[in-house]
Input
Amino acid sequence: MHIGKRLWSLVLFVFVSCIGGLLVAGLAVPVAGLVNVGGIAVAEGMDALPTELETPPQFEQSKLLLANGKVLAYFYEENRIYKPLDEISELMQRAQVAIEDNRFYEHGAIDLRGTMRALVSTSQGVTQGGSSITQQYVRLVLVETAVMHNDLEAKYLATENTLARKMRELRYAIAVEKKFSKQEILERYLNIAYYGEGAYGVESAARHYFGVSAAKLDLAQSAMLAGLVRDPLGTNPVKHPEIAIERRNNVLDRMLQLKLISFEEAQEAKAVAWDPKKVTQFRNGCYDSAYPFVCQYAKLSFLKSPELGASEADRNDLLERGGLTIKTHFDPTVQKTAESTIGKLIAPTDHVVSVIAAIEPGTGLIVAMAQSRPKMGDNGKAAGKYKWKGETYWNYAAGQSMGGAQGFQAGSTFKMFVAAAALDQGMGVNTTFNVPRTIDFKGKTFRGCGGSFVQEKSWRVTGSTGSRMGMYEAARRSVNGYFVQLEQGAGICESVKMARTLGLEVGNGEDLVEHTDNGSWPSFTLGTVDITPLSMVKAYATIAARGMRCDPIILSSIEAKDGSELPVPSANCKQVISEELANTVANVFKQSMYGTSSYARIPGIDMAGKTGTVDGNKAIWQVAITPNLAMAAVISYDADPTQKSFWEKRLKANTGIKNVRVKGKVLYSSSGPEAGGLLLKPVFRKAMEDRKKLKFPAPDQSILRGKTESVPSCSGRSLASCKQVLVSAGFLWYEQKVDSEQPKGAFVGISPSGKAPKNSAIALQISKGPKPLPVVTPPPAVVTPPSTPPPSSPPPP
Output
């Protein structure tokens, strides 16, 4: 067996020697061809060069920039920054050539002496170096190409320890040497080589280990980097500083031996100590960026853009390998104010969660996207056990498709959608309803997308003082009883569809109409849907932009590494309602700024908006708009499963966030809306500093007035019949006790009659009964005593 192995080694040695003889003529000089080697077929085969070796697929990092040009994040599979040779230190070039292939400028594609030594050693089962820089470059490119195409077999073939691989490298190396100059090959090599610690290419390595660019590398630094290529793990100076220094000194000795540096230069470089403090850790992805959830939104916007690749996997490869420069519209100035304002009120480790989101109407540009948990963490899991650290995976402003959670119920902010639907159908601001302190809607008729239905169970809604009121007053005071009746008139289906048209989205991505059981939730106007803050400001921004709906966007430009421009996701701006309707809706909800939204009002800025408080004290909202800014602030309980034990009892008791302590203080002790307004106000003011103070356009008078319709006559009808005919005509009804000569409980008539605002409420007048006749009591007899007493009779004699 031992003799057989020796014999096989001898055969291989003879074979290699023959091959070496064939190659000598073509490889002895750098530019020589193979015209004298073994025939035309061989020469043509040697000339063949795979495309990837002509245009090497060197992965490069992409960077994401804020609007001010500062880097927000890097994305890469291999952290590489390609640099031309004239931007790489001359000392670095010399050091790399000296230690890897000192005869690089003298031989052709291979160094025959080194290659023959390596081939013989390989034939004996012992791996040994000897490959020229060109051969190493070929192998690195082939590996890179295999990785790019996820081709495990090709990767194995490019790294297997066989003569076949060596011969394949030789053939390609010859073609590379004929195609490129030595300087071009060295440039490509220095940019593709791996230097450990995730640093691909000399520029990334210089920045990582020494905090300088490749152009600024000194002799000691160059020698250390050059020594890493052979064994980047074993000679890693971060983990093995002594071994790394020894390897560096070997490179310096080799450079001295080759007379590339002087003895004094070598000794001076050897005296330089390794300084781990200069090591700069790479940032990859959004996790440790300044604004991780803004970064995540930008990344997902890229990955979900079909114009940037056929599949999300292709787009991710482009992002992590393409060397892109991705610019955003995002200005951190407002974001900092939003995070600071939230941080003063709520700590990341508090059980409540808060969000502020803002976009620019008419463009969709995201202005702010801040939350009380600004750090992207491990969702509270550490070492397999729950440990709450105030970190989160969720972008609470966005929907689940963009890294968000389930969303939040939004309370009375939905009243704007119902008002918009009502105004669109001709129900003017003078549409009045009777609003008692409490209204039970049991037995009342509502219209869903599947038709009319009757509310069968008791559903009591708070109202007002019992007076009739119109839309302006109801918007100012946020009167639930009014808006439920307005929803009855406008239709739940039409109200839900209006919200969807304006841009409102369910947190889980479900269609809004389907989510509300085909538009059949009477409580829709009270905001009982879990929606995303970003979609809420999108919907309100549509009103601010005169009916122009725009998707929230964050990317402004994408530049490829060759300088060409790639398409960015569009805001898809579209006119979805008339300007006149949008202007009128804004006019109605300007009233709120002098009522429940007064805590958010800023003097000198024309604002509209709405508060929202959720039943059970689950959340507080404030939404505010002006023609060039839309913003929402939310404080809510957290539905994250890690918070379940804290919230379970509070939600059952309907106490919610009421009296919850944040930063050691009670958040709020009443169910008032002031917390949301106070949170939003400073951020809105900051965002308006560099924006023009614009005015909302005047409302449309015809929409304000609304339409009037004929009220069906109820003469001769019973009370039940009158109710039915009014509902069929689109009117609402309510019973009103009136003085009448008719018997108590008798149906007397309706008011108004003839004409009434469309879909308004008609009073069904019910007699209190005749007034009782006054009881006449005869006056008592009056006895008038004499003025003087009669004279008394004289006594008898």
